[in-house]
Amino acid sequence: MFRKLSACIALVSLVFLVSCTHNNHEENENIFRYNELGDVTSLDPASARSFENIWVDDQLYNGLVQMDTALAIRPGIANSWEIKNEGKLYVFHLRSDVYFQDDSAFTGGKGRKVVASDFVHSFFRLFDARISDATTLLTDVDRSAEGTVQGFKALNDTTLLIYMKKPFAPFMSILTMRYFSVVPIEAIDKYGQDFGEHPVGTGPFRLRRWEHGNRLVLIRNEHYFEKDAQGNALPYLNGVVVTFIKDAETSFLEFMDGNLDMASGFAAMNPREVFTPNSQLRTELKSKCYLQRMPFLKTDYLGFMIDPKRMDEKIPINLKAIRQAINYAINKEELVRYLRFGVGIPANNGFVPPFLPGNKNEKVTGYSYNTDKASELLAQAGFPNGKGLPEISVFVSNETASIAQAIQAQLQHVGIKLSIHIERPAVLAEGVVSGQCYFFKKSWVGDYPDAENFLSLFYSKNFSPEGVNYFHYSDPQFDSLYDKAVTEPNDTIRFAEYRTMDKMVMESATVVPLYYDEVIRLVNNHISGLPIDSRNSLDLRRVKKG
Prior knowledge:
Blueprint: H1 2-19, H2 24-27, E1 31-35, H3 51-60, E2 65-67, E3 73-75, E4 78-84, E5 89-94, H4 116-125, E6 152-156, E7 159-163, H5 171-174, H6 185-191, E8 205-211, E9 215-220, E10 239-243, H7 248-256, E11 262-264, H8 271-274, E12 289-304, H9 320-329, H10 332-339, E13 345-346, H11 371-380, E14 392-397, H12 401-412, E15 418-423, H13 425-433, E16 439-445, H14 451-455, H15 476-485, H16 491-508, E17 511-524, E18 527-528, E19 544-545
Parallel strand pairs: 1-10, 14-15
Antiparallel strand pairs: 2-3, 4-5, 5-7, 6-7, 8-9, 9-10, 11-17, 12-16, 12-17, 13-17, 18-19
Helix pairs in contact: 9-11, 15-16
């Protein structure tokens, strides 16, 4: 009785919050608040491509398995599983106490129990490129397996089978991605293409209200299945409010005034006000907030488009010696220290972040700052001190223009002239994918913590525009090793093969890794229980406010 009364009071408070202007007392009524500088475009997990979408989806949905802060795979709706037939059959055993959130799509508006066939329907949707961003992640599913629906089979209500064409070692990590959440067929049928506006999942929160461009409100799912170690129902919060203030300075001031509980990411905070010269939280802020920080599965880099069809053209970057000289001529420590206030790790190793499994103790050696070596390579290429070397164009977005300008000055020291072309992010992305930009600044965020995700950018079968090999890097030895590694069940052997591939990429100088990014968050002192991980996920299940 008391619990029901408490839930009613919380709901009334949240509704009042949504309908009112800023009222600091009401906004702190056990509600977690954060701001997005970007937009949430859909709450359909099949479209969970951006962090803005994923962070909200993480509160609404669950999948078979989940990943903990140490990047280990843990049970989700599946409480156990086996991998059989030499990695070509996955058998998942589901919990029988998971229910979809209440919605008018169900008879009587009450959510029903999740069964294995719900995963079959949910995963089948992911093959449809019109709604799904995950089609390439299902390449190795055996869609022709007899007696299945495109490779998936519900043996009974609590047993799900997934058939693979061949072993694929990172597959369990892929299944932790938000794409692979379970959704009810009733809601898909009812809402159709508008399901992303009317999400129905199993997660700790459910959608209360979404005012596009203004705010999004979630409320506690009273029927959520997970409990804490003491048997208390999760989540602890009554709700979540996401605002969409587009000006970073205004958003940061809202956090400093206590109207937001978290400021996440380098772009969302004023680094001069936040960090000391040695990249620590300023003392005067410690009475208001604390800093969360850890390595991010993200590599920021400069990429070269090396199309074999153009190798005869007189393009400087076609020469490996020029690409290597550029690698040596860039002082990554200075970029991180002065332009990012120490946020990030200078990328003197490979393209794959060195803290991923398999790299922590045996790091790949990349390029360190060495102007003498850069000058030596320029001379070998026939351009001593850069004499006779044509100007090289680099394409960047407006967000990274300052980094490009710093690199321009550094390259000038060894005689390499760089012209900077600043494009809007969407225009730059299209130019890179279509092969119109020979030299460009981009970043890659790992979808899952396996080096394969980073190395897939150099697999020749992934040539852009169809795939993510924007460089058109092609090496039969690399491809052969990639094919072998992804089917290798022994982690020690697979990780060694990954390192070999990373070394091959670095030797070719197809990319210039600049820095491995860090997840950084400022969190108000009244917030506890907020975990942080290298995927930059947002887990609010155990967050307490007060």
